[in-house]
Amino acid sequence: MAEAYIAGIEARTTQGKAVKRVASVASFFVSRIDSLVDPLLEPILAQGGKVADLAKEVRGHVAVASAKLAYQIYKDIFGAIRFKNLTEAGARVQRLLWASTGTKNPDYSDVKYVEALIGADTVNTVPVETLNAYRDHGVPKASLEKDVVEAARVFKRLPELGMNIDKVTQQLEDEGVTKFNQPFDKLMATLGQNHADMQK
């Protein structure tokens, strides 16, 4: 998505068009990662031994680790000379949007996916109940760039557990597209039917 955004900005500047008011976000669905990965770790935890200890280390941490590492990639992309040249024309960075930040597992903190991902040039589509919880007992501090080394370590553990994070994220992407397409198709069908009814 970052590549498409930057290419679009470049195209506009080449055409002499303004880019100062062009804005974009790249959505990152956070808690769904743990919701998919954690059940895959359960059989490993049941085995006991060293492999179970490894699984304990990563259980409940893959989602936040993914987001923290994605932010580092984001900084590299928008900190590179290619985009810095575009900022001279007024281009704005594409912000990361943290979605699915409500905690689904009751064993985890109810502000887990909000508190850990506070950082510059990000948006959080926090659910109301999670926002209320954060107002009550959240700790407001920049946290997104903390524990990045630990996040990388979590990722290094995954292959040792026989887990391919690329397959996990591809499954989530496919499921996400389906979840968005279905209501969109339903909306368009409803609008089409309403239009047909009006023509009668």
Topology:
Elements: H1 2-14, E1 25-29, H2 31-47, H3 49-58, H4 62-79, H5 81-87, E2 95-99, H6 112-115, E3 122-124, H7 128-137, H8 148-160, H9 165-199
Parallel strand pairs: 1-2, 2-3
Helix pairs in contact: 2-3, 3-8, 4-8
Summarize the structure.
By secondary structure, this protein is mainly alpha-helical.
Describe this structure in words.
The protein is mainly α and 200 residues long. It has two domains: 2-163, TIM Barrel; 165-200. The chain is 64% helix and 6% strand. The chain contains nine helices and three strands, in the order αβααααβαβααα. The chain has helices at 2-14, 31-47, 49-58, 62-79, 81-87, 112-115, 128-137, 148-160, 165-199, and strands at residues 25-29, 95-99, 122-124. Strands 1-2-3 form a three-stranded parallel β-sheet. Strand 2, helix 6 (112-115) and strand 3 form a beta-alpha-beta unit. Helix 2 (31-47) packs antiparallel against helix 3 (49-58), helix 3 (49-58) packs antiparallel against helix 8 and helix 4 (62-79) crosses helix 8. The longest helix has 35 residues, at 165-199. The chain starts with a helix and ends with a helix.
